[in-house]
Amino acid sequence: MRIALFLLAAALWGADPNVRVQLVTGGHPHDISFYGVFEGDRDFTINVNPHPSAFQSDFRKDVDVLVLYDMADMDGERERQHLREFLDAGKGMVVLHHAVIDNQHWPWWYEDVVGGRYLLKPEDGQRASTYQHDVAMRVRPVEKHPVTEGIGEFAIVDEVYNYMWVSPRSRVLLEADKPEGPKAVAWIAPWPKSRVVAIQLGHGREAHENPAYRKLVRNAILWAAGRM
Ligand SMILES: [Zn+2]
């Protein structure tokens, strides 16, 4: 109903009714099946903009939701400024899979914005995170939330990140029976100025073609855009 009203309003005002997504890649190879995750999402206008160009200009007016599928450290002050301004402006973000490794040297990023971090090395008494490919898991929703709407418990074969740090301020949405360490695989980030969702799943074809994973990513984008 809310979406129908939005579409009507957008049509009357002549605005693009689609959710405008900037999808950022770079720094990590991935299977072409990743792009199939967005197949059928005709209500999204998705622009793929890899590093380093993604953050080189102010993208606030052209983008509703930033979707990260990159793995990179952003060390340039100008790029950091554009990203901060986007998130300060109340714009949404979805952080997918290896993007939870981004910005290892930017505490504001992993503590206040994403509320989670894959540790490349031990730090402050915390052990390094580890990864494991092709793990068959069961994933279950922890609580009711628009991002997990229509998604019950599901099976997935995917890469697992063990021993990730997830902030106590993050709101965990999904847990999986991971082989080791904390079980969270999706959460609402603590960032107070906009809607940010982190989803640790999504390495390869088996995840990308999983209907529950596709629905999860779609819901996350809609929610981050304020459309749910
Ligand atoms: Zn991976």
Q: Layout of SSEs?
A:
Elements: H1 2-13, E1 19-24, E2 44-48, E3 65-68, H2 77-88, E4 92-96, H3 107-114, E5 116-117, E6 130-141, E7 154-162, E8 165-166, E9 171-176, E10 184-188, E11 196-199, H4 205-208, H5 211-224
Parallel strand pairs: 1-2, 1-3, 3-4, 4-11
Antiparallel strand pairs: 5-8, 6-7, 6-9, 9-10, 10-11
The protein binds zinc ion.
Question: Would you mind describing this structure in some detail?
Answer:
By secondary structure, the protein is α/β, with parallel strands linked by helices. The chain has one domain (2-224): Rossmann fold (3-Layer(aba) Sandwich). Helix content is 22%, strand content 26%. The strands form 2 sheets. A 9-stranded mixed sheet has the order 2-1-3-4-11-10-9-6-7, covered by helices on one side. A two-stranded antiparallel ribbon has the order 5-8. The longest helix has 14 residues, at 211-224. Zinc ion binds next to loops.
Nutshell version of this structure?
This protein is an alpha/beta fold and 228 residues long. The chain has five helices and eleven strands.
Distinctive features:
two-stranded antiparallel ribbon, 9-stranded mixed beta sheet, alpha/beta, binds zinc ion, 228 residues
CATH architecture group name: 3-Layer(aba) Sandwich
Strand order of the biggest β-sheet: 2-1-3-4-11-10-9-6-7
Distance between the termini: 10 Å
What series of H and E elements makes up the topology? HEEEHEHEEEEEEEHH
Bound molecules: zinc ion
The number of distinct helices, counting runs of at least 4 residues, comes to: 5
Main β sheet profile: 9 strands, mixed
Using the coordinates above, name the CATH class: Alpha Beta
Task: Report the CATH superfamily.
Answer: Class I glutamine amidotransferase (GATase) domain
- Residue share in helices? 10-25%
Give the radius of gyration.
Answer: 17 Å
Mean pLDDT: 94
